[in-house]
């Protein structure tokens, strides 16, 4: 640290913590969860009425996309609202997508941290013509019992060519 002129303030340091809040996540030695204050913030957000309100919501939600299965598929209609030459109109489909993302935040799994010496399972869903979805899982021993947990979800939209 000295060679790079970095300094720490002991008043701002915490030692021996079992878990901490960092970058909107509750981080422990075993898992990564969405900070509950962020979940509460999403639930309190009113429905966006224009592009200027939709962009920040999608950006915020996207920072937690690895916690939400099929994120790209769920939000595709909302991202289309932000395209050029598209009239911003909240239809039932878009309202349902917005409400589903809010619901997924409340039910997002606690992600487990990978153990690189153990095998991984990758589940791929390419059946949808609109996008691809993947889930990376791992079976770990927790409190003496085997448990399969989610390491992350990955999803991408397939763009029209």
UniProtKB/TrEMBL annotation:
Signal peptide span: none
The Reverse transcriptase/retrotransposon-derived protein RNase H-like domain, residue ranges: 91-160
Top-level division of the source organism's lineage: Eukaryota
One Pfam family named in its UniProt record: RT_RNaseH_2
Annotated protein name in UniProt: Reverse transcriptase/retrotransposon-derived protein RNase H-like domain-containing protein
Source organism per UniProt: Austropuccinia psidii MF-1
């Amino acid at each position: 640290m000295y060679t790079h002129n970095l300094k720490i303030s002991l008043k701002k340091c915490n030692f021996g913590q079992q878990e901490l809040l960092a970058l909107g996540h509750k981080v422990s030695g075993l898992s990564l969860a969405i900070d509950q204050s962020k979940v509460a913030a999403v639930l309190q957000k009113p429905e966006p009425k224009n592009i200027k309100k939709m962009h920040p919501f999608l950006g915020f939600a996207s920072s937690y996309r690895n916690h939400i299965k099929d994120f790209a598929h769920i939000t595709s209609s909302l991202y289309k609202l932000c395209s050029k030459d598209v009239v911003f109109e909240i239809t039932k489909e878009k309202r349902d997508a917005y409400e589903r993302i809010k619901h997924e935040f409340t039910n997002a799994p606690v992600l487990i941290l990978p153990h690189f010496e153990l095998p991984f399972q990758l589940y791929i869903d390419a059946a949808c013509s609109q996008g691809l979805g993947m889930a990376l899982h791992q079976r770990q021993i927790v409190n003496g019992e085997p448990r399969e947990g989610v390491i992350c979800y990955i999803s991408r939209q397939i763009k029209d060519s």
